């Protein structure tokens, strides 16, 4: 078949190439958009694979990449930018306090603040890729939209849904639609 393209899928009926399903992507527009908007909402294929290509392109552009899941974040603002307490599971044992819910609390440093303060000298910034972002509330998404303006070296990508091909839009537009 001489109509096979490496950079896309060839449609025999129309004779046109569909460029949105690129097998080999440069990520140039994605990098420009993430630097322009700071926070993007991504719709990714459910079988995965495309986000890894874009994360590689971001790392090649000089950013440090960190991936987390939205499940179990709790208070997003405190988890990302403030010191927060974590209670380990009690496993059915009573603690020294009055009940199983009262027990030892461990304190964890803020994820974003710690990583941004410890970036390599030549790094452009931190890319925080949040998977399963569809479970976040509109208030949490709004906070994530404003977070890059508070910390300019932080860029965010939140996976907000599934799609047949990888596409993105500014996170502010995703909130306005929802």
Task: Please provide a written account of the structure.
The chain is α/β, with parallel strands linked by helices. The chain has six helices and nine strands. It has a five-stranded mixed sheet, sandwiched between helices. Strands 1-2 form a two-stranded antiparallel sheet. It has a two-stranded antiparallel ribbon with strand order 5-6. The longest helix has 13 residues, at 138-150. It is globular. The chain starts with 8 loop residues before the first strand and ends with a helix.
Annotate the secondary structure layout.
Blueprint: E1 9-10, E2 17-18, H1 28-37, E3 39-44, H2 50-60, E4 63-69, H3 76-81, E5 84-86, E6 106-108, H4 111-117, E7 125-131, H5 138-150, E8 154-162, E9 167-170, H6 171-177
Parallel strand pairs: 3-8, 4-7, 7-8
Antiparallel strand pairs: 1-2, 3-9, 5-6
Features:
alpha/beta, 6 helices, 24% strand, 178 residues, two-stranded antiparallel sheet
Percent of residues in beta strands: 15-25%
Broad shape? globular
Distance between the termini: 43 Å
**Number of DSSP strand runs:** 9
Structural class: alpha/beta
Roughly how much helix do the residues carry, as a percent range? 25-40%
Précis, in short:
30% of the residues lie in helices and 24% in strands. With 178 residues, it is an alpha/beta fold.
């Amino acid at each position: 078949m001489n109509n096979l393209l490496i950079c896309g899928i060839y449609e025999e009926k129309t004779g046109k190439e569909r460029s949105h399903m690129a097998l080999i992507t440069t990520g140039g527009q994605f990098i420009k958009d993430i630097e322009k908007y700071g926070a993007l909402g991504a719709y990714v294929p459910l079988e995965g694979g495309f986000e890894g290509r874009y994360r590689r392109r971001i790392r090649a552009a000089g950013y440090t990449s960190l991936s987390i899941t939205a499940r179990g974040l709790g208070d997003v603002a405190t988890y990302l930018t403030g010191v927060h307490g974590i209670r380990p599971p009690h496993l059915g044992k009573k603690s020294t306090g009055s009940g199983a819910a009262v027990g030892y609390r461990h304190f964890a440093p803020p994820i974003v603040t710690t990583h941004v303060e410890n970036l390599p000298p030549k790094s452009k910034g931190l890319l925080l890729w949040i998977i399963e972002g569809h479970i976040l509330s509109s208030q949490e998404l709004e906070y994530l939209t404003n977070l890059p303006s508070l910390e300019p070296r932080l860029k965010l990508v939140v996976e907000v849904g599934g799609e047949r091909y990888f596409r993105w839009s500014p996170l502010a537009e995703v909130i306005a639609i929802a």
